[in-house]
Design goal:
The protein is of the alpha/beta class and about 240 residues long.
Length: about 240
């Protein structure tokens, strides 16, 4: 009776999600350079699913836009996003490079969440119903040709963070966090750098059986029999 075939070990992989406006390309490239044996999968989420992808097991980590409910999560704040104001094409903000929020006090601002998210909100803006405030990376990502966006000063900023479920730490997760934080491949905090390297075989002892003994120092000069004897030290003969 043939022996049962052994099951092949499950291939490890790391999965992460990211919200619109996050550009993970540089982290993916560094991962592929350092961890080519572990596949890295990524996909885009939205503000509604940026945490649920962790809880339903779709992703091991998620780049989220703060603030979020941090209960049951480990989270590292990463960087702040520049805010932008988006208006219909031809709006007077198009003649400026940056606009102050206080200068738009008479404008009608729309609630992005009530509009069903950024993409739908930009369609409403293009129709001339009002203006919206979005993170600049999101406005650039959506790139609606019927709208115009400009940097906005004086508005509360948003921040991007990296989140994962508490208790799901692994070497792969720690490795990815280190890459995102900018640690080098040689950093002692990287799991890939902590793995023990094979020890080199000891060099053969060429000293034979006397190994371990301190070699005698050769005497540089022959002993002088008269050393320490003065001129009158020789015995005088009898007179």
């Amino acid at each position: 009776m043939p022996a049962p075939e052994e099951e092949s070990p499950e291939t490890k992989e790391l999965r992460f999600a990211y919200v619109a406006g996050v550009t993970p390309g540089k982290w993916i490239r560094r991962w592929e350079e350092r961890m080519p044996h572990v596949p890295l999968r990524s996909f885009m989420s939205d503000d509604e699913t940026q945490l649920s992808v962790l809880r339903d097991g779709s992703a091991d980590l998620s780049f989220v836009r703060l603030p979020v409910d941090r209960e049951g999560l480990n989270l590292i704040p990463l960087y702040e996003e520049q805010q932008a104001v988006v208006a219909p094409k031809g709006h007077e903000i198009s003649v400026f490079e940056e606009v102050a929020l206080e200068d738009l006090s008479e404008e009608n601002f729309l609630d992005v969440a009530e509009m069903g998210g950024p993409e739908m909100a930009l369609q409403v803006v293009a129709a001339g119903a009002g203006l919206v405030i979005l993170p600049m990376p999101v406005a650039r990502h959506l790139n609606n040709k019927q709208t115009v966006s400009r940097r906005l000063s004086g508005a509360p900023g948003t921040q991007i963070g990296l989140a994962w479920l508490a208790g799901t730490d692994s070497e792969e997760v720690e490795e990815f966090i280190g890459i995102v934080r900018g640690r080098t491949a040689q950093s002692s905090r990287q799991p890939s750098a902590q793995k023990e390297k094979p020890k080199k075989a000891p060099k053969p002892d060429r000293r034979g059986s006397s190994a371990g003994k301190k070699p005698a120092v050769a005497q540089r000069y022959a002993p002088n029999p008269d050393k320490g004897r003065g001129r009158g030290s020789r015995k005088k003969g009898k007179r």
